[in-house]
């Protein structure tokens, strides 16, 4: 009979493989455009590149240790390694939340009418993207500095205790300012989720109004025919996946926090759901990114003369006189 550890190990492996490959393709695309094709660069590319980087860090720092643990490789990290790995993971997860919120806000600015009150902000917004990233890194680094104190490597795999992280690690039950730490994390996530929900509602209303105007102009036109609308629909789907898996993971986490004894199965399931968004998000963005197919077609065309030259070299009879 197949063990649960093997099942979870294979699930984690495929999840990480899909996520890392997808995020790597997107990250290489944005880096290539930035350095080689600056004329095709879009302001949204910087946000998406930062999101893919945060997703990759999240998958690497949490997914690979889970895979190793599921296949029986225990006690790999000491206290210092466990602290640093979980600290980096929590920062990456916070960055993914803040960057996804920025993605929603920026898309709302892009599709807003030029004569609206957001017109001036739309022009100046790209200048402040890097400042936003710096602010997000600092805020998350400060909030999750507490992780360096409460996380430790498990000394005895049979010990059960209260913990909000996976069964690879154990946390000390520190009661001094732990509520403050939880409150800071909650306020951080709720703030960005509020901005995400606000901008998503604005985009829905804006696209609905635009579709009504289009129907008055010509009945055969549809809101789906506009590139901005297609991009917005992809962003909507991306945001929906983010919110869905975020709250599923939070429900498991809250449930585990109120359990007296640690339950590794539920903790492992919560860990799996926490990485579904970093793994699935690049697949949606790749499907929307038409520049990948363009670069592929151009590379094939660039290779075609070389193949013709090789054919003429080894088949001189087929070459023209």
What attributes does this structure have?
321 residues, mainly alpha, Rhopdopsin 7-helix transmembrane proteins, two-stranded antiparallel ribbon, 11 helices, 2 strands, 74% helix
Give a topology summary.
Blueprint: H1 4-36, H2 43-70, H3 79-111, H4 119-124, H5 129-143, H6 147-150, E1 151-152, E2 170-171, H7 178-217, H8 227-257, H9 264-274, H10 276-288, H11 291-314
Antiparallel strand pairs: 1-2
Helix pairs in contact: 1-2, 1-10, 2-3, 2-10, 3-5, 3-7, 3-8, 7-8, 8-9, 8-10
Secondary structure class reads mainly alpha
What CATH calls the topology is: Rhopdopsin 7-helix transmembrane proteins
Tally of discrete structural domains:
1
Q: Could you tell me how far the N terminus lies from the C terminus, measured between alpha carbons in angstroms?
A: 70 Å
In DSSP terms (H or I, runs of 4 or more residues), the helix count works out at 11
**Rg to the nearest angstrom?**
24 Å
Beta-strand proportion:
under 5%
**Overall shape:** globular
Would you identify the CATH H-level superfamily?
Answer: Rhodopsin 7-helix transmembrane proteins
**Strand order in the sheet with the most strands:** 1-2
Which regions contain 5 or more consecutive residues with pLDDT less than 50? Answer: 157-168, 218-225
Topology, number of strands: 2
CATH architecture: Up-down Bundle
Give the C-level CATH assignment.
Mainly Alpha
Helix content: over 70%
Q: How is the biggest beta sheet arranged?
A: 2 strands, antiparallel
> What's the mean pLDDT score?
77
């Amino acid at each position: 009979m197949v063990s649960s550890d093997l099942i979870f190990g294979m699930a984690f492996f495929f999840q990480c493989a899909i996520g890392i490959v997808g995020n790597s393709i997107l990250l290489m695309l944005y880096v290539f455009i930035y350095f080689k094709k600056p004329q095709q660069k879009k302001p949204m590319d910087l946000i998406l590149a930062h999101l893919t980087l945060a997703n990759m860090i999240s998958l690497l720092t949490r997914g690979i240790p889970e895979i190793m643990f599921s296949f029986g490789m225990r006690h790999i990290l000491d206290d210092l390694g466990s602290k640093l790995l979980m600290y980096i993971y929590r920062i990456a997860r916070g960055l993914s939340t803040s960057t996804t919120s920025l993605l929603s806000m920026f898309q709302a600015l892009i599709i807003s009418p030029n004569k609206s009150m957001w017109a001036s902000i739309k022009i100046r917004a790209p200048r402040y993207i890097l400042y936003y990233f710096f602010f997000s890194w600092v805020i998350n680094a400060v909030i999750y500095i507490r992780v360096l104190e409460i996380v430790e490597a498990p000394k005895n795999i049979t010990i059960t205790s209260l913990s909000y992280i996976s069964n690879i690690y154990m946390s000390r039950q520190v009661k001094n300012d732990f509520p403050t730490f939880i409150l800071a994390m909650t306020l951080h996530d709720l703030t960005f989720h509020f901005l995400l929900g606000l901008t998503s509602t604005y985009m829905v209303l804006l696209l609905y109004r635009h579709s009504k105007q289009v129907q008055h102009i010509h009945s055969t036109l549809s809101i789906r025919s506009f590139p901005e609308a297609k991009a917005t629909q992809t962003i909507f789907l991306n945001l929906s996946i983010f919110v869905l898996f975020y709250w599923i993971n939070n429900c498991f986490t809250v449930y585990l926090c109120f359990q007296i004894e640690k339950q590794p199965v539920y903790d492992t399931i919560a860990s799996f759901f926490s990485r579904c968004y970093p793994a699935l998000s690049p697949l949606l963005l790749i499907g929307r990114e038409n520049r990948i197919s363009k670069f592929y077609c151009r590379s094939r065309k660039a290779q075609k003369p070389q193949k013709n030259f090789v054919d003429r070299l080894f088949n001189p009879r087929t070459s023209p006189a």
